[in-house]
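User: structure tokens for Ankyrin repeat domain 61, please.
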Amino acid sequence: MGNIAKGSNTPTTNSDPFIYSFSSCGQRGCKPLHAKLYEAIMKDDSTNVKALLAHQPVNEPLIFWDNPTSRRPSSILPQSILPIHLAAKHRREKSLRCLLESGADPKIRDNRGYTALHLLLLHWPSVYITGIDVLTRLQRNLATTQSNAEECLRILCARGVQTDSVMDSNCKHSSLHLALRSGASRAVSILIEHGANIDDRDEFGKTALHTAAEHLNKEVTETLITCGANINCTLPIYGKTALQLAVCTASSKAGTVLAADIDCIRLLLINGAKVNTQDCEGRAAIHDACLGGRKEIIDLLLDYHADVNNLTRYGQSPLFLFLQHRSNLRCTSLLNKLLNFSYPLKLTNNQGDLPTGLLLQEFQMQKDFLIRLSKIMLSLQDICIITIRRLYGEKNKQCLKEQLPITVWNSLYDYQDYSQHW
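Assistant: Done. Predicted tokens:
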């Protein structure tokens, strides 16, 4: 380091910003080979990359600072990265292709267990809109950036990269799960096309469809269903399906406040999701929907024959869970609808406890009326009417109207107004 002034820690104008001792550095004052190759890859200059690889092993790491063009004191340690990892991380299409043609091994992992494929997915381009000016710039560049990422992914897949290889980390995500968690939704179909196991599970037992549905990602959910994902597979520990996870998210407090889109739930139902599947605790989708109290979700599930008389392991009906919350009790129209579908009317759980919402003083009248109603023995005709409503669902109501005498149809869908009693 003869170019550092004696007695000073400050580099002179000829200071080398790398800790570098290879003979290929040449005479004092020349630019190190690692820096040249780094810059060539970042500029996507495949011609220069190929020329530099004649002097640099393609599968050996490059030593560099955070900013290769800045001057750093020699006391700061440099970083290292494999050329193929650098190209994949920054989506340098031409450089990536050149490195692979020169013998770069896409299976090599860094010290965190990431391959080039993992790094590409981890750094997949995302859009964060913070204002009109930013949006305008992103609109100009997004198409190119996305195209580069997709082409880099296709290049790696065409080279036979293991699409199901998991990271050597605590998460053990496969590439498909990593793509979803990184927001790389457009990478999903490419990975599946090149052999990724569509029903592979992560460390929580979730398939890609479970994850997409839980995040209400309609685009990815539709892609996975089209590609043949098992729509009704359950989580090994909790027993929940993709439909149940989507309903839980959309019915949560955050989902209700933000009016989360329910198109993902509708998509699952249209494509054959079993609406009455119960998890390990006996909960079906209608239980979680009623607990959340979102009318549009409950209505949608009822359209697809959700059974409001299913009980959990603890003897809780969907109506019991609905009556747990004050806000639900105030929605008299929805409460009235659930009462018209419920038989037998079960207000308590296995321990004989009433829902906590009914115990509030302000709902004393509702509690008294519902207790009286639960003790009334329905006629055979009323039982048949409730059963037909449940079996045919709301969405077939108009179809039945065309086939039944109008007086019979009116009796089926002439809902009682229980709200007048409280």
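User: Anything notable?

Assistant: The two ends are 89 Å apart (CA to CA).
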